[in-house]
Amino acid sequence: MQVDVKTLEAxxxxxxxxxxxxxxxxxxxxxxxxxxxxxxxxxRSGTQMxxxxxxITGTGAKMFRQKGTGxxxxxxxxxxxxxxxxxxxxxxxxxxxxxxxxxxRALALRHALSAKVKSEELIILDSVSVKDAKxxxxxxxxxxxxxxxxxxxxGKEVDQNFAKASRNIVGVDVxxxxxxxxxxxxxxxxxxxxKAALEELEARFA
Length: 206
Fold this sequence. Notes:
Elements: E1 2-6, E2 12-17, H1 20-23, H2 29-42, H3 102-118, E3 122-125, H4 135-145, E4 150-153, H5 160-166, E5 172-175, H6 182-187, E6 190-194, H7 195-204
Parallel strand pairs: 1-3, 3-6, 4-5, 4-6
Antiparallel strand pairs: 1-2
Helix pairs in contact: 2-3, 4-5
């Protein structure tokens, strides 16, 4: 399929062909869901921890005599039912990551790209290089392109001036093509790819 290519000034820069194997699939919600769950689970730190009975500092002496008090029998103040005692079956450090086949992860990325094409939320730019790292100038360009909430993907390296100018704009993420991922694509309203990013993606899925 052919799509229009624009410049940062929202002017026409010709047309380009998109691969149907990457951008022409019928999006499957189940695959996208599995990938988002995989990503969010993998990025969890898993450092939560509470102390169990063995880790509480305290005496092991019997609290009170066995009989005659009218109270339940207790022999240790570190048990979970007392304030300051150890937590029963508490959280321990662990990995929350789940397994997902590499082929499914690659397929999910293609489905995410295809979903943006189908919903007409994909914009192709000639390049995103700017002379000066001026946020005001980049904001003006975004207004011309109708971008307020977008993920912008450049080639192997992002233009440093453009990255500096756009990094403090709310609702806009800028990544090199190596960082493209399903979650960030779906969480932003628009997906912006440069011609360099397209070349890298087509080479990856070739």
